[in-house]
Write a structure and sequence with these properties.
By secondary structure, the chain is α/β, with parallel strands linked by helices. The chain has twelve helices and 14 strands. Bound molecules: phosphoenolpyruvate and manganese (II) ion. The site of phosphoenolpyruvate has 10 residues, from loops.
């Protein structure tokens, strides 16, 4: 987070609030008006006001009594919501009906193919990972691809197929939103909205995903060129979205998925220290993605074990019924036998799924 020790007041105004009321509140906080450089607007009725030489909690208390203000809270700019809150409820994120808990005492595995390819493929993958003990199903319907000529997912049809797989297996589904315009439709189908590595810096997407009225939790992957500080700031955008919408708790899972280093024998380099660091620094659950880190399926089990040893709250693993025929990331996908063996070795079967 930014290293200054200023207070910031998060201000949520009533819907359709009169601009004169907004101005009165901002003046009370020492600002010239909505365009003051100390005012950062994230949504039409949500502003973060940086205070200089003023005590945040008192300013927030005063603002709360003023007409037009629905909520006000003071945070330190250096700590934000992500570091400022104590551990507790935010640490555990419930998926779907809440039976799958990420950040509890038991690490969980979210698994499935890189992309949703057809109803048959995703249903087969879902059955396969459920049988082996996965707690949730992953699969992309909107795919970020490096080449503009590669398969980029089935869009809404892919989401429908994921919903079908959930119906057949009971597994909650995790799928990516690529663009602020996708958030609504992804939230309609998904149990968790994934934001990928390439989008970690896309602040409107981060805010909108957190701010969605559904309150669906967000799984945020670390940008492969991002520092821990940048990752925490990205997470803060999601938490601000959730705060603005009035969603309680953390509702956010962080995912270390490998960073780019000089090592070119693997796709990326899993930053193991980041897992422990993020877990102790933030109040949020942290999972690891050994598949995108390695890029090579036979390296996945070792990295998975290492991530759990580094205290990850769970894993995001790519698994495909037929990796050689996968439309994307087949080289890093585990097949049915490999995935079963990994789950057996890790002893991470989710209660409620067959071992
Ligand atoms: C994915 O999980 O399918 C994905 C695209 O991962 P990342 O954003 O980490 O590259
Ligand atoms: Mn992938």
């Amino acid at each position: 987070m930014e290293r200054n020790n200023e207070w910031v007041v998060l201000l949520r105004f009533d819907p359709g609030v009169d601009s004169s009321r907004v101005r009165a509140v901002l003046r009370k906080l020492g600002k010239s008006g909505p365009g003051d450089r100390g005012c950062r607007w994230h949504a039409p009725e949500f502003v973060c006001v940086s205070l200089r030489n003023a005590e945040g909690p008192r300013a927030a208390r005063e603002a709360r009594t003023m007409p037009g203000v629905s909520r006000a809270e003071a945070v330190l700019a250096s700590r934000g919501l992500i570091l400022g809150r104590s551990r507790g409820a935010a640490r555990v994120v419930g998926l779907g009906d809440g039976k799958v808990r990420v950040g509890g005492n038991v690490p969980v595995v979210i698994a499935g193919p890189c992309s949703v390819e057809s109803a048959a493929q995703i249903c087969e993958a879902a059955a396969m990972v459920r049988e082996a003990g996965a707690a949730a199903l992953r699969g992309g319907a909107f795919k970020p691809r490096t080449s503009p000529y590669s398969f980029a997912g089935l869009g809404e049809r892919g989401l429908e197929f994921l919903a079908l797989a959930r119906e057949k297996t009971g597994l909650p589904i995790v799928t990516e939103a690529l663009d602020p315009r996708d958030v609504d439709i992804v939230a309609r189908y998904a149990d968790v909205i994934q934001i990928g590595s390439r989008n970690m810096h896309n602040s409107p997407l981060l805010f909108d995903a957190g701010n969605h009225p559904s309150g669906k939790p967000v799984l945020l992957k670390r940008g492969f060129g991002a520092t821990i500080d940048e990752f925490l700031n990205a997470a803060e955008h999601v938490l601000l979205g959730r705060w603005c919408a009035g969603h309680s708790g953390g509702g956010l899972i962080l995912c270390e998925r490998g960073i780019r280093t000089f090592a070119d024998s693997t796709r990326f380099t899993l930053d193991l220290a980041a897992i422990s660091l993020l877990r102790s620094a933030s109040s949020l659950p942290v999972i690891a993605d050994p598949s995108h880190s390695a890029g090579i399926s036979r390296l996945v089990p070792g990295l998975a074990r290492a991530a759990i040893a580094a205290q990850a709250d769970g894993l995001l693993v790519e698994a495909h019924p037929s990796p050689s025929r996968a439309y994307s990331d087949g080289k890093q996908a585990l097949d049915s036998r490999e995935f079963r063996r990994l789950m057996r070795d890790l002893n991470m079967h989710h209660k409620g799924t067959k071992a």
